[in-house]
Amino acid sequence: MAAFGKKLRNVEPPLYNSRNMSWYFVFFFFSGFCSILYEVIWLRLAMAQFGVTTAMVSIVLSAFMGGLGLGSWGSGYLIRRYGNRIKFPPLRLYAITELLIGVSAITVPYFLSLGRQLLQQTIIHTFLSPAWHYLLAAIWLTVTLVPWCACMGATFPFAMLAIRNRLDTQSDRSFSYLYLANVLGAVAGAIIPLLLIELLGFHRTLCVGAALNFSLASCAFGLTLTHIGVSRIEPDPRPESRTANAIHDTDKRLLWLLFGTGLTSMGAEVIWIRLYTPSVSTVVYAFAVILAMYLAATYLGSWFYRRKSRAQGFESGLLWAVLGFSVLLPFLTVDPRLPLPVLLRLALGVVPFSSIVGFVTPMIVDLYSLGDPNLAGRAYAVNIVGCLIGPLLSGFLLLPLVGERLALCLFAFPWFIAGFVFAPLQSHGKRYPKLIAYSMLAVSALALAVFTEGFEEQFKPREVLRDNTATVIATGSGHLKQLLINGVGITSLLPETKMMAHLPLGLLPHRPANALIICFGMGTSHRSALSWHIQSTAVELVPSVPALFSFFHPDGPGLDSPLSHVVIDDGRSYLERTQEKYDVIVIDPPPPIGAAASSLLYSKEFYAIAKQRLRPGGILQQWLPGGDAATQASVARALKESFPHVRVFQSVEGWGFHFLASMTPLPYLSAADLVEKLPPNAARDLMEWGPASSSQEQIGIVLSHELSLDALIHEAPNAPALQDDHPVNEYFLLRRLRDPAFQRVFLRRLLGRGGFDHY
C-alpha cells in the first residue's frame, strides 16, 4: 500500500487546453445545477401526490440516489464492454444523456400525477392500509425516477470517455475536473431555483431546467461537428489504464473509503437538519442554506485538491482522524450556551467536514480510476451507494434509537479507526508526531461529545421522545407548557386551539356526529371535540406527538376513550384514502406560516379533497396563524374559489384567523345562540383557559371580530390562489426583500440568533 501511494504521487497532472476543456466545465456546471433543481422539485411534487411523510421522502431520495449510482456503474460497464463497437464521437453519448434528462423534466410530473390517479382508483375498489399505500407508491416512484436519474449518473463516465479520447488532451484527473464543476453548479442549484419557484411555480421552473439540458445536448452534439470535437472511441493503449486495473485488483480499500465518505456525508446531513432546525427554523430557505453551505464547502475542498501538483495524502492516518473530528464539530456549534449568529453556527459545524469530503472524494476516484471511465463509474457508484444508505441509517435507525449526539459519534468512530489503520503506512520519522496529533484529536473529540450540551437540555422539566420523523420535546408547567418539534415551538396551551373545534361545531345546522382534526399538536382541539361526546379522529404526522398528550392534559377526556381515534399519517394522504365523511374538519398546520410543505394543507387541491369528505352542511375550519398580506390573500382566494360560502374571524386573543368554509350557507348565530348549543362538558372545556369570564363573552369576542373575505384578498389583489404548483406562503423571499421593514428584521435575525422564518 505504501509503495502504491508513492507510485501515485509520481503521477503528474495533465496539461489542459483550457479553451477546449472549459466546455466540459460549463457542461457539468449546468448539469449539476439542473440535477439539484430536479431533486428539489420532484421531491415536492411526489409529496403532493403521495403524502408528506418520512417514508415518502426516503423513497424519493433513495430512488434518486439509486438511479445515479446505477447510471454511473452501468455506463462504465457499457464503455468497457461495448465501447470499441461504437463508431461515432463519444461526446455524443453525453449529448444523448443530457437530452434524455431534459425530457425527464417534462415527463416526470405527469407520471407522478398518473401514479396518484391509479392509487385513487385502487382505493375506490379496495381498502389500502398505509403500508400498502406507500409500498405501491414506492414501486411507482422507482419506475418513474430511476431511469432518468440513471441518465444523470451516466454523464460522468461518458464525459470522461470523451476527454480520454480527445485528439489533443489526455487526463488522469478528469473525474475531479468534472466533479468540481458539477458541485459548483449544485451550489447554484440549491439557491436559484427557490427564486424561480417563487416567480414561476414548480412546473415552469422544471421547464427552465429542461431548456438548459436541451441546450447542453445541442452544444455537446455541435462540438462533435467542429475541430474542437473528439475522436471516435478507440482502445486506450496507455499503461495508466492497465495500472488502474491493477489498482482495482490489489487494493479495494479505496472503494471502502469512498463508500464511507458517501455514507457519512449524507447520514450526517440528516442529523444536521435536525440539530440546526432550532436555529434556522423549518422554512425552505433554511434547508437551502444548509445544503448550499455543504456544497460550497465541498467545492472548496475539491478546488484545493485540483490546485495540488500531485495526488497525495489519502494514506495519512491524520487525515482520516481530522475527518472524524470534523464530524463532531456540530456538538459545539449547536450548544445553546454559545452565543453565535446563525450563519456562523452553520459554517463552523458544516464547512470543515464538507471541505475534507470535497477534497478526498474526487482524489480517491482519480487515484482509483486514473481517467478510466469504467473504473471511475464504478468508484462513483460506490460513493453514491454510501450516499443512499446514509440517510436511511440515520433517519430510520440511529436517530430513533440513540438520538442525534450518539448518532454523530457512530459516524465519526470509523474514521478514527481508519486513522489507526493508515498510521503504520507512514515512514518511521513522521509517524510519532502524527500519532501525537492523532491522540490529541481523539481527546478533543471525546471532550466535544461529553462537555457540550444539546438543545433540549436547556428545558426543565422536559420529556423528550424521538422517532424517524422528529425529536419531540414537551416542557413547561401549568399554563406555560410548550410543544417543540425539532426545536421549533409548535403550540402551547391557547384558547385559540379550543375555538378551532367549538366554533364550527356550534355553527353546524344539525347535531354533530363526528369530527376530523388534522395536526394533533398538544391534542387540545381533539380534546375539545371529544367534549361534545362525538367521534373524533385526529391525524398526526409525527408518531411521538400523541404519546405526550397526558403531559399537557392530565385530566379530562383521554385518548383511551372509545370516541377517540388517533391516526399516524399525513393528513392529506389520509383524506384521500378514507371513505368516511365528517361534520367538521379542523386544519391546524404547524407553524411557522412558511414551513416547508405546509402549503399542501392550504392549497386549492387540498380543499378539493376535503370537500369530498364533508357531510352535507359540514364545515371546514382552516387556521391561519398570521403571515404577510400576500399569504393571507392567497389562502383567502383559494378558499373563495373552492367553497361557495366562507366566513373569517379573528381569534379570541386578536391574532390569527379562523376561516370557516362550507358548501351550504353558514348560519349567522349570536353568541347566546351558540352557547345554548354547547353541551355542559364543552362549555367547561371552552372556558378552561379564559380569557373571558363567561362562555357567551368568549364566543362574542370572536363573533364581533368577523372580517370580510374580500377585504383580505384586496390587501394583495395580485396574489394568486394558493395551489400546489405555486405555494405563495413558502416562497416569499423576493417579495419580502422589497419591504424595508422585512429587510431590517431579516438581516438582524440572520446575523443574530433567530432563524429564517422571523419577519
Structural write-up:
This protein is an alpha/beta fold and 759 residues long. It is 62% helix and 9% strand. Strands 7-6-5-8-9-11-10-12 form an 8-stranded mixed β-sheet, sandwiched between helices. The longest helix is centred in the middle third of the chain and has 50 residues, at 373-422.
List the helices and strands and how they pair.
Layout: H1 2-9, H2 18-50, H3 54-82, H4 91-125, H5 130-164, H6 174-200, H7 202-223, H8 239-250, H9 253-280, H10 284-307, H11 317-327, H12 330-333, H13 342-369, H14 373-422, H15 428-451, E1 462-466, E2 471-475, E3 482-485, E4 488-492, H16 495-507, E5 514-518, H17 524-530, E6 535-540, H18 549-552, E7 564-568, H19 571-577, E8 582-587, H20 604-611, E9 614-624, H21 629-642, E10 645-650, E11 657-662, H22 671-677, H23 680-686, H24 695-703, E12 706-707, H25 709-714, H26 733-737, H27 740-751
Parallel strand pairs: 5-6, 5-8, 6-7, 8-9
Antiparallel strand pairs: 1-2, 2-3, 3-4, 9-11, 10-11, 10-12
Helix pairs in contact: 2-3, 2-4, 2-5, 2-6, 2-7, 3-5, 3-14, 4-5, 4-7, 5-6, 5-14, 6-7, 6-10, 6-13, 9-10, 9-13, 9-14, 10-13, 11-13, 11-14, 11-15, 13-14, 16-17, 20-21, 22-24
